[in-house]
Amino acid sequence: MARRDPERTKYGFTVAAAVDAVPAARRQVIALAQDLGLLLSDQTLENVELLASEVIANAVLRECSMIGGSDDQGDAR
Q1: d(CA 33, CA 48)
Q2: What is the value of pTM for the model shown?
């Protein structure tokens, strides 16, 4: 069973308020989930990846709209 990397001391990270930052953030979520050492099926990891992508993208779009960017979500989905 995989174990958490002892060099990685935190589970949080920041994401730039840019749509192109979402894929890297999604990969970080998956890496963190795997580092926990839990036995997760491929289907569960795919579900975690999908949910992370949606939540992160929504947060980025909301932040962009709050700092004066476009709040048009049609192109980002």
Answers
A1: 8
A2: 0.66
- 5 within a domain of the structure (yes/no): no
Which of the four pLDDT bands, split at 50, 70 and 90, describes residue 13? confident
Q: By residue range, what is the domain housing residue 49?
A: 38-68
Give the list of residues 6+ apart from residue 75 with CB closer than 8 angstroms, or none.
Answer: none
pLDDT digits (tens, 9 = 90+) for 49-72: 999 999 999 998 888 787 775 544
Domain assignment present for residue 74? The answer is no
Question: Is 47 inside any structural domain?
Answer: yes
Contact of 17 with 67, CB cutoff 8 Å:
yes
